Amino acid sequence: MHFATKAIHAGQEPDPRTGAVTPPIYMTSTYSQKVQHDYVYGRGDNPTRDALQQSLAALEEGQQALCFSSGMGAITTALTLLKKGDHAVVTDDCYGGVYRIFTRIMSGYGVESTFVDLRDLVDVEDAFRPETKMLWMESPTNPLMKVADLRELAVISKAHDAVSVCDNTFASPALQNPLGLGVDLVVHSTTKYLGGHADLLGGALIMNRGDLYEKLKFAQNALGAVPSPFDCWLTLRGIKTLAIRMERHSANAQAMARFLGGHKAVSAVHYPGLPDDPGHRTAKKQMRGFGGMLSFELRDSAKVADRLRKLEIIILAESLGGVESLIEHPATMTHSSVPKEQRQAQGITDGLVRFSVGLEDPQDLQDDLGRALA
Ligand SMILES: *Cc1c(COP(=O)(O)O)cnc(C)c1O
Predict the structure, then answer these.
(1) Cα of 295 from ligand 1 centre, angstroms
(2) pLDDT tens for residues 81-123?
(3) What's phi and psi for 252, nearest 5 deg?
(4) In 11, 16, 73, 135, which residue has its Cα 20 to 30 A from 23's Cα atom?
(5) Span from the CA of 95 to the centroid of ligand 1 (angstroms)
(6) 36 CA to centre of ligand 1 in angstroms
(7) Mutate to test the pocket of ligand 1, among 76, 166, 168, 192 (most ligand atoms within 8 A of CB)
(8) Sequence-separated (6 or more) residues with CB below 8 Å from residue 367
(9) Does 54 contact ligand 1 (Cβ within 6 A)?
């Protein structure tokens, strides 16, 4: 089955009892043990969550999926694969919440981490230690849109007996499937493209390894960061249009990248869909489209806040992946928890702007940006 068909049908077969075409929302905390024994308590299992887990496993070409109350709920649960004395190699340009959990929470439990630019495979190899048990990847990264070679990195991780993890939120399963490239575990914030409408929070872990599934399924119930049945249903509803949304997100982002690249107020555009972008070749190898996220640098960093406030259609807000265009200033918003020196060393300058290109008419988006940057 092709992706667009799976997005509509996998896990979403008509209800065998009633024929309902849309999966029902099972709002229940517990289940009678007189009639069945598959379901015991709502933290452990829920049929609406099962439907979403089946859908996500199919979309990522995985065997198993587990859903959570947020992307960070999924990430927290994945990090319980690590124990005291273990070490993780982490992409330096990671989601701010991932940086925060490794440096402020996991460090307190005796788990060390080293942050490296995953584009340099020699640096990655050098960062591994005998006690390295996890490689944490994102591609494209947030907010600099760096592209890492997932296939090569999965090989390095395997050679060191570490679990390779890829946060696939930016690409979405419509454009990239890390498990097929040899990665062990895929992470999603379903809050973003999978949900797609800025109306829910959710997370997921997807894998092809029974041993990982057993551990993570146990942790899902033990830690309890589970999603509500209603949020699972909303996510399933969003997923039905994922294929067509990602096509349009990618086309709009490509148009905006071209427009911004030719604008005099802009000194650089980071988008793997641009033929001269450093990530273009690797992205072409492992992605089916370049996605709806881009970032760009304004020449005059003192004017960033004023300019973003002039936008009328594009909304100044954190988050991404919804139908509406959102724009934000990483240095003062999403990445303010990363210390300034570290931010600058990574290239997250004060002039950098991150843009989640929505599904509006591209001409309207271009006019809005043109007015704000004039
Ligand atoms: C948003 C996001 C997360 C965290 O997800 P929440 O649903 O906000 O908890 C993790 N990784 C990436 C790449 C994200 O964009």
Answers:
(1) 17
(2) 999 999 999 999 899 899 999 999 999 999 999 999 999 999 9
(3) -65, -40
(4) 73
(5) 7
(6) 36
(7) 192
(8) none
(9) no
| Of the candidates 195, 123, 204, 127, the residue with the CA atom closest to the CA atom of residue 160 | 127
The reply to whether ligand 1 has any atom less than 6 angstroms from the CB of 356 is no
Give CA–CA dist 139/118, Å, rounded.
9
Per-residue pLDDT band for 337 (boundaries 50, 70, 90) equals confident
Contact 327, 355 (CB under 8 A): yes
**Pocket of ligand 1 contains residue 362 by CB under 6 Å:** no
> Catalytic site residues?
43, 95, 167, 192
Strand partners for 354: 295, 328
Task: Report the pLDDT value the prediction gives residue 335, as an integer from 0 to 100.
Answer: 84
Instruction: Please determine whether the domains at 3-239 and 243-373 fall in the same fold group of CATH.
Output: no
Pocket test for ligand 1, best of 67, 70, 72 (most atoms within 8 A of CB): 72
Domain range list for the chain: 3-239, 243-373
Look-up: residue for tokens 């997005």? 7
> Which CATH number applies to 3-239: 3.10.180.10, 3.40.640.10, 3.60.110.10, 3.30.460.80?
3.40.640.10
Looking at the DSSP assignment, which residues form a beta bridge with residue 67? Answer: 204
Encode pLDDT of 119-142 as tens digits. Answer: 999 999 999 999 999 999 999 999
For the chain, give the mean pLDDT. Answer: 97
pLDDT in tens, 255-304: 999 999 999 999 999 999 999 999 999 999 999 999 999 999 999 998 89
DSSP letter assigned to residue 203: E
Q: Are 145 and 272 in contact (CB under 8 A)?
A: yes
Closest to 296 in 3D by CA, of 250, 329, 325, 322: 329
Q: Is 139 in the pocket of ligand 1 (CB under 6 A)?
A: no
| Separation of first and last alpha carbons in the chain | 48
The CATH class given to the 243-373 domain equals alpha beta
| CA of 108 relative to ligand 1 center, distance in Å | 22
Q: By mean pLDDT, which of 3-17, 303-317, 333-347 is the weakest?
A: 333-347
Q: Choose which residue among 142, 191, 200 to substitute to test ligand 1 binding: the one with the highest number of ligand atoms within 8 A of its C-beta.
A: 191
